[in-house]
Amino acid sequence: MTRSIVVIDDDPVLLRLLEEIMAEEGYRVLLWSSSSGAFEYIRDHQPALVILDLRLERPDSGWALLQIIRMSTHTAAVPLLVCSADLPFLRTHAQQLAALHASVLEKPFAVDELLAHVQQFIGPAVER
């Protein structure tokens, strides 16, 4: 079974890049460009990993989505990788992110670093 990853980011170029990278590695990828409807999809489909930018259609949209995902019993255990360029926010909220069991990858990032995070969370693309 192919492992699925939901990528939520408002940058269409980054979405396509991550889709290419993850698909090349054998993961099934769903792209989401805003927080709207993302929680419901995550709840209903239980992806192996969510890669989430904190700043989406509004500056607090990603942060609010992260908190909703963690507060719901249906999605609390879904692995989350916060991928953001908002370094001041990441630094001031580091303890909260850790308490929410969200790993952080600062933008810009190296592809190898991203893949290492993904494999650490969910292993290879195809379960054996």
Q: How would you describe the overall organization of this protein?
A:
With 128 residues, the protein is of the alpha/beta class. It has a single domain (4-122), classed as Response regulator (Rossmann fold, 3-Layer(aba) Sandwich). The protein is built from six helices and five strands, in the order E-H-E-H-E-H-E-H-H-E-H. It has helices at residues 12-24, 38-45, 61-71, 87-92, 94-99, 111-122, and strands spanning 4-8, 28-32, 49-52, 80-84, 102-106.
Keywords:
single chain, about 130 residues, alpha/beta, Rossmann fold, five-stranded parallel sheet
Can you tell me the CATH superfamily? Answer: Response regulator
The number of E-state strands comes to 5
H and E string: EHEHEHEHHEH
| Inertia-based shape | globular
Percentage of residues in strands: 15-25%
Uncertain spans: none
Under the CATH scheme, the architecture is 3-Layer(aba) Sandwich
Indicate the percent of residues in helices.
40-55%
Q: Mind telling me the C-alpha Rg?
A: 13 Å
Instruction: Please tell me the total number of domains.
Output: 1
Report how far apart the termini are.
8 Å
Strands ordered across the widest β-sheet: 2-1-3-4-5
Query: How many individual helices?
Result: 6
Average pLDDT reading: 92
- State the secondary-structure class: alpha/beta
CATH fold-type name: Rossmann fold
Largest sheet: 5 strands, parallel
Which CATH class? Alpha Beta
